[in-house]
Design a protein that fits this description.
Largest sheet: 5 strands, antiparallel
Number of domains: 1
Strand order of the largest sheet: 1-2-3-5-4
Distance between the termini: 32 Å
Order of helices and strands: HEEEHEEH
CATH architecture: 2-Layer Sandwich
Number of strands: 5
Number of helices: 3
Radius of gyration: 17 Å
CATH class: Alpha Beta
Helix content: 25-40%
Shape: globular
CATH topology: HIT family, subunit A
Length: 144
């Protein structure tokens, strides 16, 4: 636990939250500043500042819980759709530096936009960044 982390305090039951799901590794609770009723956060109980710093098996456990919780959120909120959001770092709009995933009920009458405008690109640019990503993955995970 990181002492100044509100999500660690929630996971350790030292801070109040409306918990909707819990297992050995993860906790899901309602966001206190929801985009819509039912907006839920899923966190690992162990502190990781972001997903980049998590072991892949821990990230898998979080997303297994996300899959389970999102079905409950959709049913309980009668949402037309669900958005899943996960940010890593301040530039990606991360505000609480404990890895977390947003489950956001969405409704057809709202046309909320959470992403910047898409950019035009060319095949050569796609191929170049794709090559760099493949090399980075292979260097970090040689079994891929």
């Amino acid at each position: 636990m990181k002492e100044d982390c509100i999500f660690c305090k929630i996971a350790d039951k030292e801070a109040d939250a409306t918990v909707v799901y819990e297992d050995s590794y993860t906790l899901a609770f309602l966001d206190i500043h929801p985009l819509n009723p039912g907006h839920t956060l899923v966190i690992p109980k162990k502190h990781y500042p972001n997903m980049l710093e998590m072991p892949s098996e821990e990230a898998g456990r979080v997303f297994s819980s996300v899959h389970k919780v999102m079905k409950g959120v959709q049913k309980a909120s009668a949402a037309d759709g669900i958005s899943i959001g996960q940010s890593n770092g301040k530039a990606a709009s991360q505000e609480v530096f404990h890895m977390h995933v947003h489950i956001i009920p969405r409704f057809s009458h709202e046309m909320m936009s959470g992403f910047p405008n898409r950019k035009q690109t060319h095949r050569a640019e796609l191929d170049e960044i794709g090559r760099k990503i493949k090399l980075a993955i292979a260097a970090k995970h040689p079994t891929f």
